[in-house]
UniProtKB/TrEMBL annotation:
The chain holds residues 240 to 607 of 607 of the full protein. It comes from the Bacteria. Its main location: cytoplasm. This is Glutamine--fructose-6-phosphate aminotransferase [isomerizing]. It is an enzyme of class 2 (transferase). The active site is at 363 (for fru-6p isomerization activity). Residues 42-181, 214-358 form the SIS domain.
Amino acid sequence: EKGGYDWFMQKEIAEQPQAVADTLLGRVNADGKLVLDEMRLSEEELRAITKIIVVACGTAYHAGLIAKYAIEHWTRIPVEVELAGEFRYRDPILTRDTLVIAISQSGETMDTLMAIRHAREQHSRVLAICNTNGSTIPRESDAVVYTHGGPEIGVASTKAFLTQLTACYLVGLYLAQVRGVKFNDEVAEVLTQLSDSPAAIAETLNRMDPVRKLARSMVGARTVLFLGRHVGYPMALEGALKLKELAYIHAEGFAAGELKHGPIALIEQDLPVVVVVPSPKRPLLHDKIVSNIQEVRARGAKTIVIAEDGDEAVAPYADFLFHVPELPILLQPLVATIPLQVFAAELADALGYDVDQPRNLAKSVTVE
Ligand code: M6R
């Protein structure tokens, strides 16, 4: 059943090119227009949306944080992202013209379910992004976009995350198309880039041996920090979550811009700091991150850097440098997350932990 892999998580990481390809399958009609079958909200209803709130937990929340960058850029609709467990307790502003997007692999997460029930009581529309056919969250939603990731057994979410991102991109592009905003050409272009992404994901997987080796050399680490900017920030949060839940190592993700506002005080000799670097084609962002890497390294940090192919500007400041294939920045999480997943899983295994069943955790959290 593990198909020759040591753990389900390893298998699920390897299945990511296919999972993303399956999630993209059949979404474009003969006229090149994006179609979402399970979209039961009319175009008129979608045109009326004035605000989007994404609710989710854990890894799905990180997918939501990345979705915000993409959906706002493509549609110009303001997007908030909220931890589902916080949502209904703070009297959120919800109207008929608010679209709540609930992201959940299992479709049974109680915090997320309670959040959408609250949203519907306030007459907002709810769209679910879910991996489990017929589960409770999609049943209680106005519309569903299913991710076609197949069953995910490992408690730590991997292929579900990449397919959630894919579905979020599709929803963002669909909204842009329906609303006919100025980005229609961009919709077609991004769809092409998305359809190329499974090959880039597969290529990334082929490059993971050095990441495994590094992880296995780090069994003594007590704390690992993760830094990123733009979509690299949610990726940093995701990398830290993976390490906490699998290897039981204290890990924190930071927005790189926050370093000087506190976290830099944590940097000491040999502290591992993982940094996700945006494309050099975005020089403003890229150069800022490069100086952040210099800053932490000057204070003794051991820098583990994930950068795009061809980006050598970071090399002088990287103790370890891993390149991932080039994708437009909004899609970069589809490849740059993979070394973070592999790093956490390998380190956990090297420490002798059960990668598929981390302590204290359940695959589906059905209590609030
Ligand atoms: O089934 P869901 O996507 O709603 O689950 C949400 C979280 O419980 C889940 O992503 C959790 O954080 C994972 N263990 C992370 O790897």
